[in-house]
Amino acid sequence: MNHFLNEARALLGDAHVLTPTQADLSAYVTDWRGKFTGTPLAVLRPADTAQVAAAVKLCAAHGLAIVPQGGNTGMCGGATPDGSGRQVVLSLTRLNRVRAVDPLNNTMTVEAGCVLQTLQELAAEHDRLFPLSLGAEGSCQIGGNIATNAGGVQVLRYGNTRDLVLGLEVVLADGQVLNLLRALRKDNTGYDLKHLFIGAEGTLGIITAAVLKLFPAPHASAVAFAALKTPQQALQLLGLMRGALGDRFTAFELMSDASVAMVRQHFPGTPALFADAHPWQVLMQATDPGAGDGAQAALDASFQAALEQALEQGVIDDVVIATSVAQAEELWAVRENISEAQQHDGANIKHDIAVPVSSVAAFIAEVQPLLHAAYAGVRPIVYGHLGDGNLHFNVSRPVGWSTPDWQAETDRVNAIVLDVVARYQGSFSAEHGMGQLKNHEMALYKTPLEINVMRRVKQALDPQGLMNPGKLLP
Ligand code: FAD
Ligand code: 2HG
Ligand code: ZN
Q: By alpha-carbon position, which residue is closest to atom 5 of ligand 2?
């Protein structure tokens, strides 16, 4: 292995080849949830596409597997190496250049290591919106977002990451650079290869750059938090708000009272929004690109009229409408902090599921009693992107249980939740991907033929099996 390390150092410079004996690798070897830890042979930190390509060729020549890593915020251990000491973590962090911004074409061409939030800010500087938005946006990277086809809180209006990518640059498993960096809205010239790499979690190639779509910047915005009795009422509210606001309606997030309570427990500054307790709450947002007071007033008027109608019809019991940007941020923080709050509470058994939007209420009504019957005192923390039919049905340990005892129940809890998902023809991983956490579920919930076709794609693009092995496929 000394050969490999010496060649890697010659290629990337000593400072960018980190080994466990010489450097603190803790930031690279454990996932955000602390569920997986590995021991890599080395962490490589190439500076550009040419260095990524050369590093991949070098790994292939030595038969070493590569684990691509972006911001390391993934939920399924996809960016964590195994314990063999023979895998190489390839960090994309230094590929953080903006190659072009074309406001007229509404595109930007950026490298994989750009942090999502910096891209949102870049778009805003050009009076544009890059709509991908999620709680980890201050540290996740666009390459990781594309590799996981991340969802987030604006999918209702703008789609998943897949819908925001026009072109890609990918280093293939043999080190060749596949240039698909076209900034075109129309291009029917054969198989659309970029989509193979989007959501592939680094198992087919390494994304080094992308052409991303931009949208008109929202100049007017309205945010509200509503209290209601049931998820069914939340669905009614969704229909009502969409009917009133159309495409201006951009986010609709559901959360149970227990989810909000957990945030208030672990983030003590969180405001109490309602005088009374309400079993379910919803955060919503509408935006409009129109500038000036007129656009804001018109948006406010439609937003408030729709909420008043919801109150009159008994769809919602109470509502807080943000009156300032600061208050809107405060309302968003309640929602965005749920994941971290639950992390502080101890390990939970996560289910990132999707069912048809119209079935979400029935799904919750079916699963909750099954869990309570199986585990007295169990604490389901249910929240998520209701507008997309995507729930985070994360089950915290029953009162009085230890974390290890609860983790030992994972397969049984998964079966309770995911068998119901399957009956609704739903997804057992809506936005977080498979990584090394969910890949064995594929064998349970996908047909052998679907898995077989995936394997054929994998074999065609990575015949040596060196691209993130042990991830995604069962
Ligand atoms: P990493 O974790 O580094 O990697 C993720 C996967 O992509 C791994 O398999 C890795 O090998 C691969 N990969 C990374 N970079 C590349 C590359 N350049 N080329 C090829 N493969 C690559 N996710 C959502 O979908 N919606 C949410 O709302 C959401 N909210 C979150 C909130 C919090 C607080 C946290 C911690 C996470 C959240 N996530 C969410 C999960 C996570 O942020 C996303 O999956 C994100 O897209 C991962 O980006 P990353 O750069 O951290 O990727
Ligand atoms: C969110 O929507 C993220 O907050 C994280 O997707 C969900 O922690 C989770 O399960
Ligand atoms: Zn989510």
A: 339
Ligand 2: residue of 75, 160, 429, 437 to mutate (most ligand atoms within 8 A of CB) is: 75
Number of domains in the chain: 4
Mean pLDDT by 10 residues, the chain (474 residues): 93 97 94 96 98 98 98 98 97 98 98 98 98 98 98 98 98 98 97 98 98 98 98 98 97 98 96 95 97 92 98 98 97 97 93 98 98 97 98 96 95 97 98 96 95 98 98 96
Pocket flag, ligand 1, residue 148 (CB < 6 Å) = yes
Q: Is the minimum distance from the CB of 135 to ligand 2 under 6 angstroms?
A: yes
**Cα–Cα distance for residue pair 185/350, rounded to 1 Å:** 37
Q: Are residues 330 and 352 in the same domain?
A: no
Query: What is the span of the domain harbouring residue 390?
Result: 346-433
Nearest ligand 2 atom, CA 253: 2
Is 418 in the same domain as 324?
Answer: no
Q: Give, using CA atoms, the residue closest to atom 8 of ligand 2.
A: 339
Does 11 lie in the same domain as 55?
yes
Torsion, Cα of 147, 445, 473, 110 (10° steps): -10
Does any domain span residue 176?
yes
